[in-house]
Amino acid sequence: MMKPLGLFIALLLLVSPALAASRLPSECEPANPAAADGSGEFPEEVTRALDAMVRAELAQGPTVGFSVGVSRGSRRWVCGYGLRDVARKLPVTPRTTYRLASITKSFTAVAVLQLVEQGKLSLDADIHTLVPNYPAKQWTVTVRDLLGHLSGVPTYDGFAATINVKPLSTAEAVSVFSEKPLSFEPRTRYLYSTWGYNLLGAAVETASGQSYRDYLREHVFQPAGMAHADLDVTATRDEHQTVGYRLKDGVVKTSRFLDVSSRFGGGGTRGTVGDMLGFGRAVLTHTLVSRDTMGMMQSSMATRDGRLTDYGMGFATYPLRGHYLVAHAGGQPETTTLLVMFPAEDTVIALATNIEGEAKRLRRLSIRLMEGVLEAGATRRDAHFADPVDAVVYEGLSRIVSYGLAYHLWATRGPGTLSPDEDVPGAFARVSEMLDRKLIAKDAKAALERIRGGHDPKLGSVFIRVGAHMARVLEKAHGPERLLAYPSEGPLSFFADYLAACEARGTADTQRLGEPLRGDLLRFVAGWKRAEVPAELRRLRLDEVQNPETHWPALKKAAALWPELRPDYTDELVRVAEGFGWRKQLPMRLRWLARAVEVSPRSVEARLALSQALLVAKRDEEVLPLLREALETPQGALALAPMMLLKRLIEPESPRVALGLLRAGVALHPESPELWEALAKREKAQGHKAEARAALRQARRAREARPEPAADSVVRGAGPVPDDHGLVRPRQAL
C-alpha cells in the first residue's frame, strides 16, 4: 500500500504539469519599505516575466519546494514555491532555509582570503603546518592548491565515504581522509575535492583562533547580511528548515539522513535564498575582501601545463555567452542549490530546491532568469550547421566572442584584469590559422579539440586576446551599452559589427580575420539573416508554450528551406519530450525526440536523448546506428568518447538505460577497458553472470592491448563526484 506521503505527491504529479505549476502555492518577499522611490523593486512586468519563467520550468517535472532570488543593483526579488514539508503541507516562504551544500566552499574561500589579507595565512603555506593532524604527503600541498582543487587531495572514494550519520569534530572530519595518499602531484591536474576544503576549514580555525562556525558567523555571514545562515547541525535547525526529498524511479521519497559535519568546510552550511543573495551582493560590492583579492578569487586557475580549470578560489568562473559568470553549485541529500553572480552586470541569481539531483534544472532556470534580467527576455538560440567543417568554424567564432567579450566586461566593469596585448596581429594570425577550413577538414576532431582550448594559456589565450581586442574596438565605435546587446544577439552580430567597424576605421589587415575565414563569416551572417527565428518565439521557448504542436510545421518547413544553416531548437524539443512520462506517454516522448533529430540531425544531445527513450521502449536495435552517426561528427567524437560516456551514466534514467548505453558504448569503443569493466558491473547487477564474465574477459584483453591509461581518462580531473559538486558544465558550453 502506498504511504500517505507518496500518495499525496503521486496525486499532485498526476495533475497537468502546466496546470500544477500555475497552481503551486508561492510567497514572495515584501517590497522594501525603506526604498520610497521603489528602487528596491523590479518593475512589475519584470517580476511577472520571472515568475512565468519559474513556473514554466517547474511545470516540466516533479516539484516539492523551490526558492528563487534575483538581485540587480539595489533591486531584489525573492519568492518561494511549493512545499517545504509535504506531510504537514507547510509552504515554502522567503524565510525557508535549505542545506547550501557546496556553496559552503565559497564561504570557506572568503574566510581564507580574509585571513591572508590580515597576514595570518599565506597562500603558499604548506597545509600540514596549519593542520598538524594532516600528515605530510609525498608532495607539498599549499593553501593556494586547495582553493583551486589542484592539490591532489582525493575526493570521495566510494559510497561509504558519503554517508556519514554522526556528528564529527574538525579533527575527526580530517581524520576520515588524512592517511590517504595524494591522487597526483599538485597543479598537474584538477580534481574537485570536498575533503580539500575541510582542510581549509581547519586552517581557518588555526589561523583565527576561532571555531569554523564562529568565524563564519562573525566575519562572513554578519557583514553580508545573512541573517539566517549557520552551520547545518541539529541545534541550528528550526521549523523553517525544509524536509528533503529524492526521486527514485519517478517517485518522490524522503531523503536519507546525512550528518554534514563530516564535510563542514566544503558543504556544511544552511541558509535562505535571501542569504545567498546577500552573500552574492557582498561579493560584488567587495564587502568581505578587497577588490583586488576578489579579482584574484574570480580568476580561473590553471594546471602546470597551461589549461584553465574554470575554477578560481572558491568559485567556478568562466564566460557564458559573453557574460563573465562567477558561481557555485551544491548538491547533497535534502537539497540542490545554485548561486550565480555576474560582476560586470551587478547581478545575482540564487536558486534552491529540497529535491536532490536537480543541478541541470537549476542551471537551465538560471540561464532563463539571466535572459530575463540581462537580455530583455530574449531567447538566445545557436546556429545548427549541416556541414561539419562549418560547425567547427562556428564554434570557434562563438568561443572568441564569449571569452573576449566576457573578459573585457569583467576587466572594465568588474574586478578583473587583462594584461596589455603586445602582439595583436600575431593573435589574429593564429586564430585565422586555427579556423582555416582546409586544415579543419583534414582532422575535424583534432581541430575541435584545439579550438576548445583556444582560451588556454598553453595556446597563448588567443581567443581571449582577439575577442577582447574586438570588444574594445566595438566599444569605441558604438559605445559601452552596445556591448551588452551581443550576448542575446549572438556571435555573428558581434563579428558583423566588427568587420563594419574595421572598414569604417581603415583597420590594418593584420587586425582583421584572414581569408578564407572572413568569407566563411560573411556567408554565415547572410545565412543567419535568412533563417531568422519566428517573431512569436523570440522571447519564448517551445517548452514554455501551452501547445508546442502548433509550432512544429513552421520548424519543419524552416529545416527544409534552410538545410545548411538555421536556428537550433534541440534543447527546447528535448525538453518538450521530457514533459511526457516514461510509461503511458512514451510514444509522445519518442515522437518529439525523433523530431529533434529530424530538424537537428547533427545534434549529439538529441541523439543521446532519443537513444535513452528507445532503450526504455525496448527498441535496443535502433540505438547503435543512431549513436554511430553521432560519433562520425567532430562534436560526437568528443562527446561520445569512452570517459565522457561513463560520466553520463552516473545518474541514468534507469538500470536498463545504463546497461543499454554501455552495450552500445563497447560496440563503439571495443578498445576501452573502462567501458568493458563498467559493463561487467552493470551485467552482474542485473543478474547476468555469464555476460558479466564475458565483459571482464574483454576488459582484460583491452587492458593488455593498451597498458597505459587512456589519454581522455586523465584530462580535467576525475569527473563529477556523487553528491557535492562545483558548477559542472560541458567544456563546449558557452
From TrEMBL:
Beta-lactamase-related domain residues: 50-363
Keyword DNA-binding applies: no
Pfam families given in the database record: Beta-lactamase
GO MF terms held by the record: hydrolase activity
Key words, A-Z: Hydrolase, Signal
Region (Disordered): 687-734
Signal peptide region: 1-20
Protein name, per record: Serine hydrolase
Species of provenance: Myxococcus landrumensis
